[in-house]
Amino acid sequence: MSEKFEKIFIEITNFCGLDCSFCTPKKQVKKLMPLEDFKKVTQKVSPYTKLCALHILGDPLSVKNLSQYLQIAQSYNLKLEITSSGFYLEDNIDLLLNTPCIHQINISLMSALYQSKAVNLKEYFQPILRLCKMHQELKSEKFINLRLWNLDKNFNPPALNTEVYNLLKRYFAFRETSALKIRLNYKIFLHQARCFEWANVDSTISYKKGFCYGGIKQLGILCDGRVVPCCFDTKGIINLGNILEESLEEILQKQRIKSLVQGFKDNNLVELLCQSCSYPQYLASKSPCRN
């Protein structure tokens, strides 16, 4: 069958070990998708996409046997995106750069800026810069995106970004910091975007109109196999079914996802979680905060 989704998010763990002030306020009990379940998931999604991201809420680099997950994904010819806080990077640099199926490595620099306890940024950046150095030495074709998604609504950076810019300038030759995408070196970029507020069904904000790619170009799978329309549904509020118990084709034929998708196409937000999510506003402004 032809590929349906541009990207499917597979959460192999919901654990990150951090306490970022911008993250979803209520986290669930630590979970890990067993290898046998991951194999079932990859087997079922491989006909529907060629690109998977191994996160929804957690940090995949925190998984001790990550190499085994990567081998399974590679056996099903899946390209992978790895998104990490950077705090578990030290022991995974070789693995990331030498695993053929990894297409892109994203480091969320905001993770170091918004902790309850101050982080030594020079120490934090050491493994990140080693990753970039080895990437260049290997002449790697993988993309590395250093993400600063904390700009205000007018795309202005907060003052705490200054130290990050200064550290990067010591290593990379660039001057401009106001651009949203800055080329630091071959296939290495500083990517900036506005900050994102997590969708909260208890919020007083309610949007009725909007378009989203959830369920259309993207799909998410939580640690326990629950299928959700996007990577913002970390708690499985829009539970479309369980891929460990059903085929993806069966799940996609259910009325709930059909109504969700048709609503987006008609510019209507039919789910309560979607009505409390500002991501459609990012799409409308052509400056999405997350991919």
UniProtKB/TrEMBL annotation:
Keywords: 4Fe-4S, Iron, Iron-sulfur, Metal-binding, S-adenosyl-L-methionine. Pfam families: Radical_SAM, SPASM. The keyword Iron-sulfur applies. Residues 10-138 form the Radical SAM core domain. InterPro entries: 4Fe4S-binding_SPASM_dom (IPR023885), Aldolase_TIM (IPR013785), rSAM (IPR007197), rSAM_sf (IPR058240). Its cofactor is [4Fe-4S] cluster. Residues 212-277 form the 4Fe4S-binding SPASM domain. The keyword Metal-binding applies. GO terms for molecular function: 4 iron, 4 sulfur cluster binding; catalytic activity; metal ion binding. CDD domains: Radical_SAM, SPASM_rSAM. This is Radical SAM/SPASM domain-containing protein. It comes from Helicobacter apodemus.
